[in-house]
Amino acid sequence: MKDDFVRHTYAISIKELKQLRRDPVSLVLTIMFPILLIGIFIVIASAFSATSHNIPVVVADLDGSPASEALLDKLTTSPFIHITELVQTEEQALGAVDRAQAVGAIVIPQGFGSDLASGKAFVVVETDNSKFTSASFVLGAVSSSAHDLLLEVSRGEAGAVFGAKIASIEVITRPISGRPPTGDTILPGFLGMIAILGAFDDIVNAISRERERGTFPRLALSPVSLFAVYSGKMFATVVLTILRTALMLVIFALDGVVVRGNLFLIFLTTILIAIFTLSLGLAISARIRGSSTLTVLEIAMTFPLFSLAGITDSPLLLAPGGRSIADALPWTYGSDALRRIMYLGLGLNSAVLGDLFILVVSSLVLMPIALMLSKRTM
Amino acid sequence: MSILSFVRDSLAVAENEFRQFRRNRSAILISLVILPFFFTASLGAGRGGAGTTFSATADIPMTFVDNDYSVASLRLWQTLESSPDFHSLTQSYDEQQSISLLGTKTIFAVIVVPKGFQNDLDNGAQARVILYTDDSEPGVSDQIQSTLTNYVQNFNPNVEVQPQLTEAEKQAISGVEIIQKGASFAGFNVGLTIVLAVVQIFAVFYEIAGGMSRERDEGTYARLLVTPIPIGAIILGKTLFDVLLSIVRTFIVLGLAIYGYGARPNTDLLTILALSLLVALVTMGLGFVASALKLGQRAVVIVEFFLILLLFAFSGLVIDKELLVGVSQTIATILPFSYAFDALRRTILLGRPVLSLTYDLEYLIASGVLFYATAFLFLSKFRERLIT
């Protein structure tokens, strides 16, 4: 009996993998998901980490003093902004932002030079905050130029010593990973996302499409126990998750990302994420039977998950309501475990163990319910 | 053929679409419930309502280690501990033990005041505060560093109670105050512009391309083609049906955003509706082009997924197109949806009149016309191929 179960499970798994091999669309999807997601990460990360940008700004130097000209020089050489126009008045500068001709307007007010000497100088910056990332780059460029100018004048390099104040306390950040600040911290979450999307797609292939083709009742009528049918399908998903995880790790390596931690733990975590997703997909497929409808639902769920399951931002930074939702989603613990293992190189410490435990318990609770629902609606 | 009969045929197609839609519970659920509600509610949950403010660092557990035991370090502790941004800050006396807790989810940052802190301040030298962070949590390190910097850069060790700083004063880095002008927006309002467009693109593409594909699979498309209804009327009829659905969807998203999460768009509802419909029409055109390529239902969904991913990378959703480089910027410049997001932001956030966005509108309308013309051409030319 036990031998039969294992044999049947194995046979169903092989059938699933053969079907996938014969379906070019699904096969491409399995491979394309990871590549596309990583492609997007590379586009976004390269934009954020680029050493120079050409964000258009206009400048109005209303002072015309050596100090304001020195600041203008610093702004001109800033690698992030591009001064498209020097205007005469504050209104002209602000108008350029209003007309969307520039993302930022920098106004150096009259008396800037003398105010700098007394340590009370100011600069007016208007930004088009509907372009939130560019606006923050403009502010950063102005802040950095002002800081450079102050360093220069406080050292007397600009030919004059003003009573300028440099920040009295400096905050030195030391991340525990010892890694430089890059966007790599979101990559483990992307791996988790691949496991979720892949497992959802597997359930579409394994259940919904089989129902549509009419092969599911035939499978149920064969002398294979229903438990072996589901176990076989789950085993196929586990094999595919291992392949997807391996593919992602290769892409990470090619992208120069240093993956730390135990490989076995990484694979174990993605498998647990996939099994939980499979259980959920099975439960949903009992109600939503069309394969394309199920896929649309899967995609619709994916995008909010980027934020709510801690893929792109830590759940710690969410609003209180979002944090509660994140805490209730087992996927949050999966992506958290992956980050701790892959990014920090941690082993089975209390945090990782706790995350994996929640994933296991969630699957153990959901799987019997999903099987029951699926059996009822067969 | 008279215009009247063309319009009558189009209305007949639209009526048929509505009848089919009414009978399909899954379609109703996805189009009018899951997509608008799920996306808007997720945004509200993640960012909080438009009127609500919350400190991202307030509830993050952190430890403060004072190695200086001076009046200045005590005042820094008191300043942070009593601030609204560090509610979960606790004091510890063992630096190594505190650091060893990072990565275990017990604490996420350790603020260390090193020996000689007061001495440096007294001597006019730059003092230091060391911040150890669990950088496996995306964004947390930057957020804590930025909040802490705001508190320490204007810290005066000679004052027992630090004055409350305005946002402008917090920007007074290194002696030159940067006065920021330009409206600032709640995260929810920024997200609303994204949700509105993404929901429309998502739903409309599925309804048009997926609907045509389903008709082909069920054999009703072939029957439709043997009726005397011209291709143009079929396209118009399906467009009318989806325009009405898009209007309902726009109102669901806006209703939930305004009454549920307190969003206050800086423009009138008619402008938002007009732009939302323009986005929907461009997507419908693209959907008709996709359906003319004889895509199966599953392929439609996959194309849709790739389309949304494309939007996330290149249309200014996550990162402004001004910051993209090389080929990415070229793609962003070509992609009509990046102009749609731009127009939605400029109207909903900045309150610009819609007619002042001439370039965005022209590009969107031209794209829509191009998509519809291509779809009409393809659907007419491949008429036979599409039903076999």
Account of the protein in words:
Chain A has 378 residues and is α/β, with parallel strands linked by helices. Chain A has 14 helices and five strands. Chain A has a four-stranded mixed beta sheet, sandwiched between helices. Chain A starts with a helix and ends with a helix. With 388 residues, chain B is of the alpha/beta class. In chain B, helix 8 (187-218) packs parallel to helix 11 and helix 14 runs antiparallel to helix 15 (358-381). At the A-B interface, helix 2, strand 4, helix 6, strand 5 and helix 11 of A face helix 2, strand 4, helix 6, strand 5 and helix 8 of B. Strand 5 of chain A pairs parallel with strand 4 of chain B.
Sequence stretches where pLDDT stays below 50 over 5 or more residues of chain A: 158-167
Q: In this structure, how is the largest beta sheet of chain A organized?
A: 4 strands, mixed
Q: Report the portion of residues of chain B in β strands.
A: 5-15%
Order of helices and strands of chain B: HHEHEHEHEHHEHHHHHHHHH
Q: List SSEs of chain A in N-to-C order.
A: HHEHEHEHEHEHHHHHHHH
Estimate the strand proportion of chain A: 5-15%
> Strand order across the biggest sheet of chain A?
2-1-3-4
Q: Using only CA atoms, what is the Rg of chain B?
A: 28 Å
Mean pLDDT of chain A: 83
Which regions of chain B contain 5 or more consecutive residues with pLDDT less than 50? none
Largest sheet of chain B: 4 strands, mixed
**Shape, per Cα inertia axes of chain A:** elongated
The helical percent of chain A reads 55-70%
Largest protein interface, residues of each chain: A-B, 104 and 97 residues
Mean pLDDT over the full residue set of chain B? 86
Features:
A: 378 residues, alpha/beta, 2 domains, 4-stranded mixed sheet, 14 helices, 9% strand, B: 388 residues, 16 helices, 5 strands, elongated
Quick overview of this protein structure:
The complex is a heterodimer of chains A (378) and B (388). With 378 residues, chain A is α/β, with parallel strands linked by helices.
